Amino acid sequence: MDAVQKANSGHPGMPMGMADVAFVLWTKFLKHNPKNPEWIDRDRFILSAGHGSMLIYSLLHLTGYDLSLEEIKNFRQMGSKTAGHPEYGVTPGVEMTTGPLGQGFATGVGMAMAEQFLAGKFNTESHKIVNHYTYAIVSDGDLMEGISHEAASLAGHLKLGKLIYLYDANSISIDGSTDLAFTEDPVKRFEAYNWHVQEIDGHNHAEIENAIQNAQKETSKPSIVICRTHIGFGSPNKQDSASSHGSPLGEEEIKLTKEIYGWDPERQFFIPEEALVVFRQEIAKGDAAEKSWNDVMGSFRKEHPEKAITFQNWMSGKLAVDIEKLLPVFEADAKGTATRGASGIVLNDLKDEIDNLFGGSADLEGSVKTNLKGEGRFGLDGATGRNVHYGVREHGMAAALNGMALHGGLIPFGGTFFVFTDYCRPSIRLAALMKTPSIFVMTHDSIGLGEDGPTHQPVEHLMSLRAMPNVLVIRPGDANEVAYAWKAAIEHKTGPTILVLTRQNIPTFERGEHNKPELTQKGAYILSDSGKSIPDAILIGTGSEVYLAMEAQKELKEKGIDVRVVSMPCWELFENQDSTYIEKVLPSSVKNRVAVEAGSTFGWERWVGSEGTAIGIDTFGESAPYQELYKHFGITTKKVVEVVLAQKF
Amino acid sequence: MDAVQKANSGHPGMPMGMADVAFVLWTKFLKHNPKNPEWIDRDRFILSAGHGSMLIYSLLHLTGYDLSLEEIKNFRQMGSKTAGHPEYGVTPGVEMTTGPLGQGFATGVGMAMAEQFLAGKFNTESHKIVNHYTYAIVSDGDLMEGISHEAASLAGHLKLGKLIYLYDANSISIDGSTDLAFTEDPVKRFEAYNWHVQEIDGHNHAEIENAIQNAQKETSKPSIVICRTHIGFGSPNKQDSASSHGSPLGEEEIKLTKEIYGWDPERQFFIPEEALVVFRQEIAKGDAAEKSWNDVMGSFRKEHPEKAITFQNWMSGKLAVDIEKLLPVFEADAKGTATRGASGIVLNDLKDEIDNLFGGSADLEGSVKTNLKGEGRFGLDGATGRNVHYGVREHGMAAALNGMALHGGLIPFGGTFFVFTDYCRPSIRLAALMKTPSIFVMTHDSIGLGEDGPTHQPVEHLMSLRAMPNVLVIRPGDANEVAYAWKAAIEHKTGPTILVLTRQNIPTFERGEHNKPELTQKGAYILSDSGKSIPDAILIGTGSEVYLAMEAQKELKEKGIDVRVVSMPCWELFENQDSTYIEKVLPSSVKNRVAVEAGSTFGWERWVGSEGTAIGIDTFGESAPYQELYKHFGITTKKVVEVVLAQKF
């Protein structure tokens, strides 16, 4: 109450309503070490209803994490560790950034999947080195969001027995009573998903304790405990009212509430010693828990030294191999291959040595070529299958990838059609914000997919993802670029990577010393240079259109125009190069520039300048064989040649 | 089979598996007039599983719509009326574009909402002029998508008794058996949503007929009929197999299938006369049905002439009033108002005269100011409430808006925070593709929202939506621009409009003859000119940052620099102006240009050129009071002044 009041903004109602549940969970069940929030085998706790951030900040402070009372007093202020919504990487003990509803719910599923896989992979009869729960507090809003459906249905299907969600059923949302919009039956709904469902009084400690125990005992189903609570619990005038949801209670009401608890109404940020003592026992308990785990790890290390090293490498994100040596080399080939096909080959060349690559797709395994051959299906062929069938649940998949990446131990990737990044977008954004290395394999990346037509043809997607901070968008121009795109993706640890791949075949280019495919990692490079020190023009292509630029170069040469071709698979990597390299690839003196990319031309001004031209498509596509579409939309070699000639300076 | 084979791509399995259900629905129940697909009181039919497009094309051809056998033979070819997925506006009788799964499911809910509202508004005891069902064929994939949860939960809550969905439960998805990923219990799930649920053999005509009759009888709940079907029904070797899902059956298999039906295996595109006769009865039935409705309308017109005119205006999209006369005029005011607040005032000034404005929000009514005061809550205060409580279901809301816009009769708008356009994106894209005039009221449009922090602060959203074809993104710069933004939105009939509004107060500018607020409709205009015929520089602002440009203009004037300020609320409208106007506002000779917008600078090169500068934010935001954030990120008057001076040419 005090922190929200001091900030004069925030959400007091939920922290007050769920304080009882959180108290029981955090003091009687949660396995964690406040002095080492990074301890690998800790239980994961997610506050999916992130607007109630003061709840988790209170818990972290009370149980002895590195979050001082000063920080609590600086709630929602610049540079504090107590942002409006919990921020991963900012506050010790916060497992993920939450706020956009449903994301915590769905990300927890990924964490529990990682736990299940790692336990299956490493645990022995006497060494349960991976053995923890994933808890979340979820809200009415989480349950209304569609992603909660995808995630819950998937979790039930995968029988994630160590997933335990505590649902704050307080019957109040921002607009008022949930009856205004939300009258579904959560018991039936979650039973339909094959969850273990309990319904309790969320202010009765014995019921809470009993319910969590039951949830733990049910090992073959995820659990949801429907906690009937009172929002703003304890506030004499605002309890059970939407007015306690998203605004400070007001100084008078806070005093009245404190009086009810028998506290000094004038004292702010007061923590009764007898309460603190109970919470702070978590420090010793956590220390003992980690020590005990360390003992098991020690014994594990002795008995299974190789497995122990693997475990350690996986959990620390260290690659035990030189990826470059594993990458296939594709021979130059005019017919070439689809980059989605090349991606499948690369993945299967990597999978044995990088055995924590963990794949899957949203019901498009054959199309997006994510299958790790010979590996099982996760949850169906035992816990150690590395191919996940996510179903047609793109959003749920994206959040699950984030959850696995946050959990640690795995290199998670998942595939669907590029156009469906729209369905994944809130989770991609969260990965970017959290700096989570989720890998998205997005195929069928343009009108090049042909007959399926405009609903399936991405147009604006490249630009709209490039506009998002901290996302690597890589659209490789041939099979060898695909190999290094995968290397870049796996090595990129500070944010998500989106691999943008073709359905259709494209040529594999000749490679030599001057255009080695590892240059892919620079984001852009000279694929084929002009004979002149200052080229007559620069053609920039990405993905399937690099080939058009290469053909145009030949045709222009016949006309006496000697141009450079730059392949630009990744804007973000290129922008991170030093200015010398950027100037070398794109000398500012060359104004005759043409970019060609089968997508929106929006934004290409950055590279072609005011005087250059971007060839692309600024309308939706059409349903037809792809060769005809390229002609119809004027994304052709002929067009590139024409434009270069037309804008000859 | 033949069409998919000829195209050598497509999805034969679903059309074959659902042929029985579709036959019964289309010949025994569907109220439609093949010779007038626009008949207002027709039942709406949606093929949510749009990949099975050959099913609806077959039905349309067979029942006598303007879709020739030649078109069927041109399936998936350039310029045909038989695109890979059904396209609204391309094929007569196709009520919406489908393909991205879940969209049809959720859009149908909007259609049924429109029907319910209009019926409540216009029907009398003896004149049921609005009285039709919304049917959809939905698939496993639709049910896996999160949006189906949002839409189903909302539809159950709203008791949409005339919504009848036929679920093609064929147990096969692209990857194989649905058991791979999808094992939830649909009966329990839809009962949890308060739907009427039946389960039948989808090949038994009596059961199908009976189920649809039961569904019609249940008037207080939406209905789902779980039709257990065999994908690729009739194909001796591919029935019940994923191989029939997304690829042609193969010529041999087609012959074998035809033999089973006792048809000439060599004959392609053959329609037995006795089948055609049955289907073509729909022409006479449809004609009779519309005539009978016309009689009722005639009588309605006589007895309720004013209501009849209103009905006709609503359904034809004609406005009976001059919006301009209704718009409020906001006095110049340095303190000003939040543009979300101005939007709420405009809406309430319009609502009485434009009484088919139909609003709502995703549980943020108070924040996004969408409430139409004095109007009821739809579905709670009777059918004619004009404020919808969508719950925390942004995606479902967006699709519902599309459904209402497609249905006709209403001017639907819905609100949430701008950052949550990410959740709505697949539906916004579909609105753009279908040219559907859905209106999105998106507030809290930048770091200007302050303490809620980066999860709630849009950064890339303006650019990522501007990159989408056919979307009007309008970010008004003061209260008077808001008024004309609403005018533009309501008058825009060929695509969605997104109104991007502030949480925080911004000044209301002085207006005169030279900068009348109706210029908003031009997308960009000179808000405050330089005294010079060729300005020293041009400052371009949008939304809450126009004010910074105005302040900078003053400061620069003191330094002897005389600049022009251009307010640019809408790129798309501006790009549609003739080149003379564009050149007048942004003379190409003026290279010293600065744009200021509290969002990604990505793409601003289009207007500031290679030599200008965009001031914005290319990282995620922070949690703090907004004034501090503007300073922290350098989006200030001071910065604008500095940049103009630095790049003085």
- What class would the helix/strand composition of chain A place it in? alpha/beta
How would you describe the shape of chain A? elongated
- Tell me what the CATH architecture of the largest domain in chain A is: 3-Layer(aba) Sandwich
Query: How many discrete domains of chain A?
Result: 3
CATH first level of the largest domain in chain A: Alpha Beta
Chain oligomer state: homodimer
**Biggest interface in this structure?**
A-B, 110 and 110 residues
**Nearest-integer average pLDDT of chain A:** 97
Measured as a percent range, the helix fraction of chain A is: 40-55%
Measured on Cα atoms, how large is the radius of gyration of chain A? 27 Å
* Main β-sheet description of chain A: 6 strands, parallel
Please report which band the strand proportion of chain A falls in: under 5%, 5-15%, 15-25%, 25-35%, 35-45% or over 45%: 5-15%
Order of strands, main sheet of chain A, comes to: 10-9-11-12-14-13
State the total count of DSSP E strands of chain A. Answer: 20
Distance between the termini of chain A: 67 Å
Helices of chain A, by number, come to: 26
CATH superfamily of the largest domain in chain A: Thiamin diphosphate (ThDP)-binding fold, Pyr/PP domains
Low-confidence stretches of chain A: none
Report the CATH topology name of the largest domain in chain A.
Answer: Rossmann fold
